[in-house]
Structures are given as structure tokens and as C-alpha cells.
Amino acid sequence: MDSNVSNFLITLIYSIPTFLIYFTGLILSFILRKRLGRVWLVPVFAFLIFILLSLAGVGLQIFFHFYIVPEGSYSFYAPISKVYGFISMAFEIIAFILLLIAIFAKRNTGPDLRG
Q1: How far apart are CA 114 and CA 14, in angstroms?
Q2: 69-100 per-position pLDDT tens digit
């Protein structure tokens, strides 16, 4: 294995903790769905957005690393990277808003005992 491929694989290894966090959140959303009440699907959608964005980012890295960069056409790389960055940022904002909705949504926790 040449050093170029091994450096690329090391870069991909750094994304594993992020995937673990997203999959843990997705699994916890399913496990705690009865406690979350009606809003249990909101964090599921948020974590699915995060997972899909991460997979798309890794796929884009693989595409650029093995198909674009070896040919030396860096002028093709920059516009696609910028467009993906803007799209990714927009969907991340949506996912974080969904998580905030899930955190602060009103839940039916039983009778109000405040008086």
C-alpha cells in the first residue's frame, strides 16, 4: 500500500467517532421513543440527516482522492467542494434545529403538580 492510500485511510479513520456519535443518537432515539412521546421521530430525522451528510462527505473524499486528484484536475475539485459545503451546511442547520425542537418540545409527563 503506497503512502498516498495509507494517508487517505488514516483520514477516513478520523470520521469514525463522528459516525459513532450519530449512530448512538439514532439508537437512543429508538430506545427512548416512549419517553420522548410524539417527538421521537424528530431526533431520528436529525441523526439520519447527519449520517447521510457524513456518508456523502466520505464518498466525495473517495471520489476526489481516487478519480480527480490523480489526474491533476484540481480546477474541477474546488467548485464541487464549495457547493457540497454550502449544501452540507444548510442541512446541518436543519438537523440542529430538529434536535433543538426535540430537546425543548413539550411532552406529556403526567399531571402538573405545581399547584
Answers
A1: 48
A2: 656 666 777 788 889 999 999 999 999 999 99
| Interior angle at CA 30, CA 45 and CA 27, nearest 5 | 85
Can you tell me the distance from the alpha carbon of 45 to that of 22, in angstroms, rounded to the nearest whole number?
11
CA angle at 67 for the pair 66 and 71, rounded to the nearest 5°: 105
Distance CA 34, CA 73 (A): 52
- Provide the 3-class DSSP secondary structure of residue 19: helix
Kindly report whether the global pTM for this prediction surpasses the value 0.70.
Answer: yes
Round to whole Å and give the CA distance between 66 and 73.
Answer: 12
